[in-house]
Amino acid sequence: MKILAIETSCDETAISVIEASGKINDTHFEICGNKILSQIALHQKYGGVYPSLAKREHAKNLVPVLTETLKESNLLNQESSVLDIPVLKELEALLTREPELFKQLTLFFNTYKAPKIDAIAVTYGPGLEPALWVGINFAKALADIWKVKIIPVNHMEGHIFAGLLKKTKKNVSDITNIDFPILALLVSGGHTELALMKKWSEYKIIGSTQDDAVGEAFDKVARILGLPYPGGPEISRLAQEARDKNLKLEQKLPRPMINSDNLNFSFSGLKTAVLYLTQKINLNTTNKKKIAREFEDAAVEVLIEKTIQAIKIHSIKTLVIGGGVSANIRLRKNLTERIRDDFPKVALSIPENSLTTDNAIMIGVAGYYNSLYKEKKLCEDIIAEGHLTLS
Ligand code: KG4
Ligand code: ZN
């Protein structure tokens, strides 16, 4: 099954084509084409992501990214044909809010014939609703003209599948022999949650943040320290420099809720503790590095302790991590060591670095699993769900 996947939930315009085969828990994926256009440089100026700006950028970039991806996948076939007036009217109605996208897409359809694909997978939530809508309407337009089905995908499910993929050779990955129950630690700019899976497609959120997401805390602390957006990689870099130079803060930052008798998280107090600290000490380069190190240690410690508690309570066999913060080197290293030392029977699945942040490969893979175990959804029933949850 050849799937074209589209991801526009936040600040990356991503499209991929994957060829998927096999049955559940014995699947094989070939990456035929994969493109990501990041808007980070643009949002950096404002210190965060603006939904209307993100939407406008997606609308501008979707057709160029599609063209590139199809080209890389050897699926771009030139054939001039002109869309019928009724089809054109339908397309215009679908894209009334995206006139620029309508113009670009009409030109695209008039230039290239339908590629040989079987389905279109598209993220429908969670995320920024205006940004999600552009991707959904774009997917609907393609599905309509190319006469293929649409598979709506939950972005967080995508992050889980990104973690479960095992690369076997260049551009080929498998998902095989995964043992249940699975625990997913999902850590991104909008989410911090522990999801329990007792079987495929069944999720139960057993812990989540009560305030800020951990990625959001990284971003906010970075802003306090005068570092650019997104803050995660910046904090991580400074923290590593502090470790290399043996720089350490004298006082400890709090580890919120680390000993609470539930699996929930809280990161806003940790961020506030950093804010108070910066008001008391000289914010020179050395102190920034020390704070970054202590903040990262605190955040990672809490994430790992809660994950360990969940592993014990639910007799977990597979632990998977996903989301932007799963790129964090400290988290990856400490979690790997802890599982190896204390839970050698638990299989730990960590996403390839390139699949930690938002991408369309994970949407295609999750889409394939959805097509295996979920009923087909009607195209017109697919709507953007900004607050979509897993359970
Ligand atoms: O999953 P993602 O790309 O987008 C959302 O769905 O939110 O995650 C983005 C988040 C940002 O908050 C960013 O600061 C964080 O992931 N992040 C990191 C690292 N790389 C990205 N946080 C900590 N360490 C990193 N190396
Ligand atoms: Zn994400």
Strand content: 15-25%
The largest pleated sheet is described as: 7 strands, mixed
Q: Gap between N and C termini, in Å? A: 27 Å
The neighbouring-strand order within the major sheet is 5-4-1-2-3-7-6
Q: From the helix content, strand content and strand pairing, which structural class follows?
A: alpha/beta
Helix content: 40-55%
- CA gyration radius, whole angstroms: 22 Å
Description of the molecule:
This protein is α/β, with parallel strands linked by helices. 44% of the residues lie in helices and 21% in strands. The chain has 12 helices and 12 strands. It has a 7-stranded mixed sheet with strand order 5-4-1-2-3-7-6, with helices on both faces. The chain is globular. The structure holds 5'-O-[(R)-(carboxyoxy)(hydroxy)phosphoryl]adenosine and zinc ion. 5'-O-[(R)-(carboxyoxy)(hydroxy)phosphoryl]adenosine binds next to helix 7 and helix 8.
Brief summary of the model shown:
The chain is of the alpha/beta class and 391 residues long.
Q: Which terms summarize this structure?
A:
about 400 residues; alpha/beta; single chain; binds 5'-O-[(R)-(carboxyoxy)(hydroxy)phosphoryl]adenosine; 12 helices
Lay out the secondary structure:
Layout: E1 2-7, E2 12-23, E3 26-38, H1 40-44, H2 51-72, H3 85-94, H4 99-111, E4 119-125, H5 129-146, E5 149-154, H6 155-164, E6 166-169, E7 172-176, E8 182-187, E9 192-199, E10 202-208, H7 214-224, H8 231-244, H9 268-280, H10 285-313, E11 318-322, H11 329-342, E12 347-349, H12 361-373
Parallel strand pairs: 1-4, 4-5, 8-11, 11-12
Antiparallel strand pairs: 1-2, 2-3, 3-7, 6-7, 8-9, 9-10
Helix pairs in contact: 2-4, 2-5, 6-12, 7-8, 7-9, 7-10, 8-10, 10-11
The structure holds 5'-O-[(R)-(carboxyoxy)(hydroxy)phosphoryl]adenosine (KG4) and zinc ion (ZN).
The site of 5'-O-[(R)-(carboxyoxy)(hydroxy)phosphoryl]adenosine (KG4) has 19 residues, from helix 7 and helix 8.
